[in-house]
Amino acid sequence: MPIKNKNFTRSLLFIPLVLIVLLSMPIAFAGRNSGTALNLNSTVIPENTATTISKIENGAIALAYDSMHLDELGLSENTFNYAIKGFNYLVQHDRLAKDNIISIVDFSLPSTRKRLFVIDLANYEVLFYSYVSHGVNSGKEYASKFSNIPASYQSSLGFYETKNTYFGENGYSLKLEGLEKGINDNAKRRAIVIHGAAYANESFAKAQGYLGRSWGCPALPEKLHKPIIDKIKNGSCLFIYGANNSYLRNSKIINAC
Description:
Strand content: 15-25%
Helix content: 25-40%
Number of helices: 9
Distance between the termini: 30 Å
Number of strands: 8
Strand order of the largest sheet: 3-2-1-8-4-5-6-7
Structural class: alpha+beta
């Protein structure tokens, strides 16, 4: 059942974040050189309470990134930070029915790498780590071109909400709603969905030197697409990232604060 009380949900999510901070303090101060370790002496809440909460969350998120070893899996910290920033924005604006799961597709990685990360944010666990295809006109090994235009056969970047499932031309599939106007809001019109495909697997990538490509859909290996769809369906956040400066400049969600 969708969680109605977002403030209560965010409070529950904040508790494990604080525990991670407290348990990881020696590591944070000794191991991270980025200067983002939390200063727990700064516990006095100033007038701008929202800013204080944001700083604590950001520090805890950095530790969560480390605790899940996402760097070892190939997901950059910048990509993860963009994803969480947008996720927080969508939760605050009541755009997600499921606010404990996020799926991140990193198209800055080659298609021969696993680049889908389904993450349980309540328990800081990577649930799925999988191959995922990009659109045929987005590129060969790398996706470098993106479009929101129908019949472009290119992938679209940005934040999506997962919707309901159905059986279509590609079997069991998951509808997506693009949440960024002018960037991916034509997803329904373009029939951009998550589905399984015989060309979206490791053996195909090894044989061809690149993963098979779709008409713009993020297609998954046939052995994994059903459990992944069942985990993320009905109102969770999907973030598709690419090495694209235009997206980073124009995304209202990324630039919301």
